[in-house]
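#data-curation
PF: Archiving a pair of folding outputs for the training set. Convention for this channel: one message per protein, sequence first, structure tokens after, nothing in between. First:
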Amino acid sequence: MKASKAVRWAASLPMLLLLILTTTGCTEKFVVLDPKGPIAEQQRDLIIISTVLTSIVIVPVLILTAIIIWRYRDRKGRKAKYTPGWEHSTKLEVIWWGIPIVIITILAIITVKGTYALEPSKPLVSDKKPMTIQVTSLDWKWLFQYPEQGIATVNYVKFPEDVPIRFEITADSPMNSFWIPQLGGQMYAMSGMAMTLYLQADEQGAYWGSGANFTGKDFTKMYFDVHAAPQDEFEQWVSEVKASSPVLTLDGYKRLSEPAASDIRTFSAFPEGLFEMTVTKYASSHNHGLSWEDIQKVQIEE
């Protein structure tokens, strides 16, 4: 019997270790802990500080739990002192209530300061002018519009390094969550709303972005490529897109917004005010939203 228990314990430990590794993502790189921008750096610091502070309570509790289970287990010759009449210890009460209260207070202060410092719509401090990119979540793809450059892309976004990027985010589909892990946290994309998120890449490179909400059959394909490049390379890319890509029309956008996954696509132009039309289409429940016929009429009148 003792041998069989030992065998079961020996077999369960590797399985437990494998489960921990697979569920925590240890088999892949921790991109959240490898920030490439000022927002992601501050968020990483908050994660590390919070983990260390909570470990002050969690680690001793886990260790003591194992010790208590082992020391007071039912076995012959057990010498652990049994005191069923014990009910109070001021010293222990102060320890197991005082330490958590102090830690929670410190966490609260850090969290409040971090929340205000990392307000998503707060412009980043920089001597460079922010660049605006309008993001629309579709089923099951991402549309990026560059109002200053006059181009649009699908599932691919490119911008200059060291330049604050003002993402204006909405949805023409079920609610999703816009996320570039190495640049910053998530921001919800919701129909009828235009959310603002400031991010910046401190160095050039290729990053990964995705939708972080379940939105149906092909939600796992809602990822996009992110590329931070030198200013001259970005401008050259814009020129190439303008010269070699088709125009995104209203009819083309209507087809694009139909539920389906998509590869990377580029457009040399898009209807003026398309992002605003998408937002206002869902902005009111009193029949003030624009239908496709209304949008086309507005476009013709302009």
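PF: Second:
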Amino acid sequence: MTAIYYVEDDADIAENVKTYLEQRQMEVSVFDSVAGAKEALRRRRPELLLADRNMPDGSGDELCRLVRRLWGGQVPVLYLTVRGGTADIVGGFENGADDYVVKPFALEVLYSRILALLRRSSRVEEMHLSCGCLSLDRERQAVFCRQEEIRLSSLEYQILLLLMENKGKTVTRKQLLEQVWDSGGNFVNDNTLTVAMKRLREKLHNPSCLKTIRSFGYRMEESI
């Protein structure tokens, strides 16, 4: 199911939207405060953030900026706003929002906007992989730990890419040895793999999402 975080302080609106979307096979988690949503966002990556831009304890812009810091463009942000003024809309886009819907809105319209953003983000996600604090941009062959770009060797990059492509699955040392190679195009040996993994961990600041499965292999998984 598509996981959506919905930030809304109006309980009636929140319940109507949640019911409508869940009937369409979406998993909706409702938060009535910016603080609660921030805490949840740091624990888990949703597939879309739906947020009232003006909340009693803060602004949806804070959440949007947090999402962009954590996952770049992988999580689309859709604002709900009671104001249709140009300044309000432009301000939201400047903070990273992807689209907006003005209250009051028809649920069918909201649903169509959500589907459009999910289709767009699925194309983006093909080029961007993430796990925990790490993100990998296939197009640029760039790796980031939070906002810091990490310089990796060709071998280290290949190892990380293979692990992230198989997030949630254990990749055996044998698989790594068969599928990665050094800068000269040669398959690596067991000792080279051990050294490369050690250097990779160090460069990535020993991320908790990179697990060692003793005497077997490695696995990337989201930390709970």
